Amino acid sequence: MRESFPFFGQPLRTHVCKFFIPIMNSFERRARQLGYRSIAGIDEVGRGPLAGPVVAAAVILPPDYKNREIKDSKQLPAKKRDSLSEIIRRDALSIGLGVIESSVIDEVNIFQASLAAMKEATLNLSLTPDYLLIDGLHRIFLSIPQETIVKGDARSVSVASASIIAKVSRDRIMEIYHRQFPQYNFSKNKGYATAEHREAIKKHGHCKIHRRSFVLKDKSLLHTNTEMEF
Question: Is the CATH number of domain 22-180 3.40.50.880?
Fold first, then answer.
């Protein structure tokens, strides 16, 4: 006997997809109902690594845009992120990037650097947004109406698209740095504190893209004071 929903009399399997696929454009639709027309989703990646920049993206999608494959970049394998990045770049009305390098992160701290990257990404849009959907808890310093969304990359298609663009862009930057500093294997670890990366720092010292404010907080790396300038 097949299981059915009460009062519906239909097989359970015919309803599973409808009930469990999240509605990813509800924030965008609500903003449009309030009269906004150019809505940008914003997200950043790279807050935690020992090396490399923090990168943010801002994405303006067409009205009522839907793509069920777009979701939080952290939940996607690299090949899928790459293919979705191409789709988003094809379909988006505008995309802006913000890149804040490690030297600035050391100077202002990672929180301020992340906000600066998101502001830069917004300002680099070719279209001027009239409403911002921002992943997380904190607004950015722009006089544009904005809404913060906790776990926005899992709840808004615009923010999820921004997370994918930011992640793919940062990964490609780290692959470029890998060619300059192959001893750290940035193409694999992307600057994060893997065991291999930590051992490479102990062996070779810091390079110019390492975040000194991060490395010096790691007690196991405190004795490492060599910096490679090439």
Answer: no
